[in-house]
Structures are given as C-alpha cells and as structure tokens.
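FORM 7B - TANDEM STRUCTURE REPORT

SECTION 1: FIRST PROTEIN
SEQUENCE AND TOKENS:
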Amino acid sequence: MRFLDLALIAAYLIGITWFGARFRHSQKSLRDYFLGGRNAPWWAIAFSIVSAETSTLTVIGTPALAFKGNFGFLQVVLGYLLARIVISVVFLPHYFRGDLFTAYELMERRFGMRLRRLTAGLFLVLRALAEGVRVFAISIVVSIVLRLDPFWAIVVIVALTLFYTFEGGMTAVIWTDVIQMSLYVCGAVVSLFTILHKLPHGWAQVYAMASQADKFRVFDFSFSPTLVWLSQPYTFWAGVLGGCFLCTASHGTEQLMVQRLLAAHDLKASRKALLGSWVVVAVLFALFLTIGTILWALYRANHWQVPAKVDRIYPQFIWDNLPVGIAGLVMAAILAAAMSNLSAALNSLSSTTVMDFYRRSWPGKLEAHYLSVARFATLGWGVALLAIGVLAQRVDSVLEAGLGIAAILYGGLLGVFLLGLLWKQVSESAAMSGMAAGILGNLFVRFATPIAFTWYVLIGTSITIAVSLAASLARGEFRQRA
C-alpha cells in the first residue's frame, strides 16, 4: 500500500462528498432538486452530459477496446454527432414547450397516461440494469486499490455518492460533474504521458508498432447483405447509423440525459450544451483509445502476459507501475468518473419515480412532502443499484455489456417518441403495441442472432414505428403530419 496514493484518493472521496452535500440548503422545491433551479450555465451542463456519457465504462472499457482491436469505435462517435443534431432540431423544441420535469411527461401530453407510465417504467428498468453494470465497473477499480472484496468496494462508492446526491440534488450532480470531469481528463492525460515514457523510443516506437499492426485504423467500409456483416459492431455503417440511433435514444428519450437538457435556462442554452458536449466526448474517446494502444505496444515490446480480463488492464497497470502520487491521482480520476455517473443515475431515477408515478397517483400534497419523497426515492434506488452491481460480476466487457443492455430497450423508447413527434393520428394503443413489438424484436435479435449491439436501436425503432403505423392504418387512424 502506498500511503500517499491512498491519501490522495481518500482526500478526493471526502472532499467531493463534502462539496456535493453543501448544496442541500439550496434545495427548496422539486424544481431545485430535479432541475437545479434551471440556473446552471450551459458549459457546466455540457460537462455534466459528458460525465454521464463517459462513465467508468469508458475509462476502463475504451482502452481495452484499442488494446484488443483498433480505433474503430470512433465511427460510433460520428453517429453521436448526427444524433445531437437530430435531438436539437426535433426533440428539444417540444421539451421546452411548457414546464416539464421528465421526458415522459411529453408522452402523456401526446398520447396519454398509460404510455407515460410505460415509457417511464421502461426507463427505470433500463437505467437500473445498465447502471448496475457500471456500479460493478467501479468495484474493479476500488478492489485493485484497496484489495477489497468487490462487494465492499461497491458499498464504499455507492454510500458516498448516495450521501451527496441525497442531500444536494441536481445542483450537486452538475457541479460535482464539472469537478470530476476536469479531474479525470487531467488524470488520463497524465497517465498517457507516464505510460509513454516507459517505452525507450516513446511515441515513435508506439506509432511504428501500431501502424504495422493496423491499430490506428478508424474506418471500415466493408459491406455484405449477411448476418455476418451485421455482427461486426464497429463498421462505418454500424457506427454512423447505429451510433446515431443509440445516441438519439439515450440523449433524446432517457431521463438521465433529458433531465440535464431541461436544467438549462432556455432552448438556446440547452442546444449549446448538447452540441458542445460532443467535442469533449470525441476528444475523450480518442484519448482513451490512444492510451489502450500505448499499453498494447508496451505489453508487446516487453512480452508481458495479458490479464485474463482485459478490462482490468488500464487500472491494474496504473496502480502497479505508475509512480507514487501519480497512481493515486489517476485512480481518483477514475473514481471521479464512477461517482459522477452514479449520482446522475440516482437523481434521474428518483425524478422519474416521483414525477411520473408518485405525484400523479397522490396529487395535491405540499412541496415539502414531495421533496422528502424524492430524497427517500434516491436512497431506495441507491440500495437497488448496489444489489444489481453485485449481480453483474459475470459480464465480460463492461463497456459493451452496458451499451448492449440499454440498446435492447432503447428501440422501443425512441420509436414511440418519434411517433409522438412526427405522426399526429397514431393512437396510444397503437403506439403501445408497436413499442412491445420493438422490444420483443430486439430480444429476439439479441439472443437468437449474431447481430451486433450497435444495430439494436435502429432495428427496435424500425419495428416499433412499422407495427404502430400498421395498427393505426388498420384502424383508420393514420394520417402523417403535414
């Protein structure tokens, strides 16, 4: 145990928990607790979006992707840009008409209460499962540093994050995100140059080895009308089309992201936050892929044995090989990413539980009552995520597992949102039928075909829209928006 490293990590954990909890006194209403009073600047919201989008799965999983493969994951990032443009033009204007707290209030406005509760319930399931995988990813880091059993590693981080999220609400989430985002970007840059320094010829050696092995390859334009082709997750077509649908669903329909967009002062600020976040995301993914490639070159040059779980390679290498002090800084940075995403998930799960279910079922209570319920909903979801994280220890790739879980359900969500925004006469019953078909179709694709997860959202969305429109046409309801 290196006491300086452990002291840095402990100082970070205590400091960020204290900082987040300080926002308790500004939480006077549900608007404060769930939307931060809509007072945060757009650039802070942009950093918060990136923090939610690039969790511990990114920090741990992205270097592993480059270690095993190449830079093909950047093709998905191109799809993320296209998605942000779609959301800015199609989704955001509707979210800023009225006083919305959650994405699913839009579904009630367009279809009715049943579909609002169905989409909100689907989000709760989706986010709980996906966040459970991320919680397990946290345990990988903490167990390496503290030599703890993964269960107790999960308990430590969940408890600390839960405390300041319980106290400070969305304001605490956004501003701790800004700090944590800055910390883990700095940690990644420091680790890159430190690892690079361990190679005798530095970047020239990495570039020569990686170029020869085609590790810097980004684009794969291969195409064939077969399931074998569709099983490749990182082709240009899967990246741009699949990445666009995946990001449109996650940022346009899931409360985790929509809540941040609604926290902006107005539509213009929300658009700036969303589009600005892409630049940071693109740089981050390129940075972590570069780290993975440098690690590959280092392992190959020294003929080191690769760990059985490649997801462990980056945090394990940092802790075992980086100088005292730097290792603690980088590990604190990885924990920053973990706590940032977890706090956002807790607040979004709480907001959906209270706004889409509890307050609709028990209206007319005092604001203080709903605020109290919101805090206890946060506590309840913290316990639930801890349990799911313990059960998620069998996954192979934490990054692809987290994205895969979400992608199965995103298709149905995105499909009904597009139906609500683009077609006037599709009924609630038709939309619910299409949504069920989209989710069932994706489950079939996931468990009965070799198709890669990057295609799930596109497939599920297409099935949802097609079945809904067919049902509306059969009932004489169909009329496309002029």
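SECTION 2: SECOND PROTEIN
SEQUENCE AND TOKENS:
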Amino acid sequence: MATKTLRRTRIALIAALCVGYVASQFYRTANAAIAPELMRELALSPQAMGAITGLFFLVFAAMQIPAGVLLDRFGPRRVMSGLLLAAVAGALVFAAADGAPGLALGRGLMGAGCAVGLMGSMVVFARWFPQRHFATLAAVIFAFGGAGNVLATTPLAVASAAIGWRATFVAAAAITLAMAVLLYLVLRDRPPGDATAAPDAETPRQIVAGLGRVLRDRRIWYISAMQAVAYPVIVTISALWAGPYLDAVYGLDAVGRGNVLLALNLAMILGVLACGPLDRLFDSRKWVVVAGAAATVLVLGVLAAVPRWPLWQVVALLLLLMALGGYQMMLHAHTRAILPDHLVGRGLTVQNTAVFVGVFALQWASGWIIGLTRGGEPGLPYRIVFAFLALAALAALLIYLRIEDAPPSRA
C-alpha cells in the first residue's frame, strides 16, 4: 500500500474507532449522574444500585474471552459493529424499565454490546501500526472515548432534568446505532497482503490452542492482578459512588454533581494522555505502572483518613486520583509487548477480563459496605470504601511487582 494511502487509511481507522468507543464510555459511567434519581424513583437500595451498575461490567467481563476468539477469527470490523447493536437494544430496555429487573437487563445488554470497543481497537492498532506506538494509540482512543464519560456527567444530568432519563436513553440508542453503521463502513481488519493477521488464518482448534497458551502464561496473570484494580478502583468512584458521596456528604444537586463528575472525567482523560508516551520516555512499562499504582494507594489512604474534607479539597484529591489512573493504559501496552501477533486478540481480552471482573467485584462489595455502615456519620461509609479500595490496590501491586519489565527498546 502506498505511503499516502496507508496514512489516510490509518487516520480513518483511528477516527472511526475513537467515535465508536464513545458509546462504551458513556454507558459504563452513565449511572453516576442519575443514580440518586433512579434510587428514589424506583425505590432501589444501595446494594441494588451497586449490583445493577456493576452488571454492565460483569457481562462485559464474561464477553471478553469469547470476543477475543471472535476478533482473531472474524476480524474487528464485523465483530465490533455487530456487537454494538446489543448496546442499542440495552439502552432501549433500560429506558423502558419500571424496576430493578429491567434496569439490570438493560445494563447487561449494554455491557455485551460494548465489550470489544477498546480491545477491538487495540487489535486494529496491533495489525496496522508499529508496536512502539501502541501505548500512545491506546491512550489516544481511551482519551477520545472519554467524551462518553463527559457526556455522562453534566450533559446527561441536564438532559435528564429537561426530558427525563428515559427519553435521554432512547436518544442514546439512536446515536449508538449510527456508530455501529460507521464502524462497519470504515473499519478494515488488516493491511492488504498481511496474511499473518488474516481473520481466517487459524482453524477453530488452533484458536482454542492459542487461548490455552495465553492462559498458561504467568505474566498474563501478574498483569491481570493489577488490571483487576487499576481501572476498577477509578471507575468505582467516578462511575458509581462519587455522585451519591457528593449528595450525602455535601448536599450537591444533580447539576452540581454533574459538574464535579465532568471535572473528574476530564482529569482521567488528561492523565491517560500524559501517561501514554511515558514508556518511551523512561524506556519502561513496569515502573510507570508501579509509580501510578503506589500514588493511587497513597491518595486513597488520605481520603479515608480524614472524617470530612472541605469540598474544594476533596474535589482536588478526587481529581488527582483520576489523573493518576492513567497508568492503566500502560498495562495494555505491557500485555501487547509480551504477545506474538497471532495471539493479540486473545491475550488482550484475557487480561481485560480481569478489569471488568474487578469492576463488578469492587462495585458490588462497595455497595454492601455502604449499605451495612450507613446510618451514622454520612461520610463514614465512603471513607471505609476508600480504605477498602486502597488495600485492594496495594495487594495487586505486590503481585504485579513479580513480572519482568518489557521496555519499548526491546521491541
């Protein structure tokens, strides 16, 4: 392929993938802005709200390994655009729900439909771009997809106040359908003539054997331990409890909460973009992760230690926490660096399974913690959650420290 044509194709691929990933980020975090209203309107307990919100991530996690097989077998174009239709159905079911079962079904369908938004994009990057650019490209798509997080804050709160959360989700379904069509029209599974990346290059038996090879690699499990808390800690706060915390402790209304959540998500995006090039700057992936995780533990400990921070100080700490979470993308780059090309889809989705199992587990556990400890000081349940998340991150960091580094200079 000619250089100019290749460049244009790569730009089109990045643009389409970034637009498509917005849906995944929007749906996973949407409950944070409207959780208090959902809980009041549909009489949901904190435990039920935590479980319903976390169900997106549980289904998302369950879909990862099958999706990895599908990506390697059929290619990102058909798999990504086809699965996104399930998210369309999920948004419509969520909009029509009159209780916890309907909300749960809608969240589950959204999780299934968005399951390959990031990993499918990374498979495309692995096939179309040099490995040394992988972390930066992963950071770019995650940051652009952060527009979905932004839309799920003040804009969602304003739209819900104006037309109701049900009508808002119907509109989201229509936009998601347009995204699915865009992906199908623009994506190309591999560069012309690249037989090693052909979606039908392996037989089903070979694909299963490749999955077994990935699962036997201890390095994948070390990375998975860190993945189970890196993003899950951040999203448990930003996508679930930050809104109720600001409501219960500081009395912020929906728009006020939305403004803080908007700032948190912008901080997350900036943190990811800042972290993306660090592996090349320091010629290390492992130690970028270690530094980010250690700082995350420290900030969570500070949030847990003080009974009630002034509002501006707690917002500043939460902003710092979101920015530090950018190290999560380096874990994907670490995984890519230790995988042969033909195992990229399966390897990335295996370690990404840990991400969303972790999200479900932390959101479910934090819901129980808040449900069991509420009734006294309004901030105490949330401080206990901060301490719980700090301990989880510390335990994962100790496991991850056992892995060897994979510096870009060795690629």
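SECTION 3: OBSERVATIONS ON SECOND PROTEIN
The chain has one domain: 3-190+202-405.
Residues 234 and 322 are 6 Å apart (CA to CA).

SECTION 4: SIGNATURE
Preparer initials: ____
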